[in-house]
Amino acid sequence: MKRLKVFLSYLRAALFLIIIWHIASLLADKPFLPLPLKAISEFFNLFSQGIITSHFFISAFRVLVSIIIAFVLAVPLGMLLGRNKKVDAFFAPVIYILYPLPKVVFLPILVVFLGLGNAPKIVLITLVIFFQLLVTVRDASRAVPYQSLQVMRSLNASNWQTYQHLIWPYCLPHVFTSLRIALGTAIAVLFLAETFASKNGLGYFILDAMEKREFGEMYAAIIAMGLLGLLLYETVDFVERKLVKWQ
User: Fold this and answer.
1) What is the tally of structural domains in the chain?
2) b/e code 88-113 from CB counts within 10 Å (16+ = b)
């Protein structure tokens, strides 16, 4: 029942956006803004023929791998920084310098060092997600209630047990909140990375269609990228429901 309500809410939102798009297309009356039904028809046509399928899965692969790498690296380090003042004092200046810096500026450097394949895109997206997760988890780890830590000490819990049974569960909801926020940025960075010296991915497909003035294909790929973002968002929600059952 709950999933049906979610589906209906997405359906209402999609219909609302289609209506706004349709009105804007009629008012503009320009080839660069086709009617939504034409773009949607082109979307299904491209997928049925397999023209855009490989680009979709390549983009999905890049984002998913980036999320996994960033999660594995940022979460343990963030918990450690939040609970260890000496380690945090060493890394904090580095974080304060790199976190506000737009990671996109590293793309040309990554392409030079790593080539034109998946590696530079994955590293770039990983950097974006890594720092967002790291800062969030560090702050969450630092905010673990003192009383809870005292309870763990009274039970003679080791540092590992404290991290496993207290700090990790306390930080986990914040991790998923941070992931949701990071996903939007990750998709934007994915688009930029795939339009720079790239020969595949949805970003490349969108730019290529625009240059060929195939606006129906361009908007179909934009729909595909929006669908990718939605699927990733729903995946994060699904994993959160499985791992954070107490919320």
Assistant:
1) 2
2) beeeeeebeeeeeeebeebbeebbee
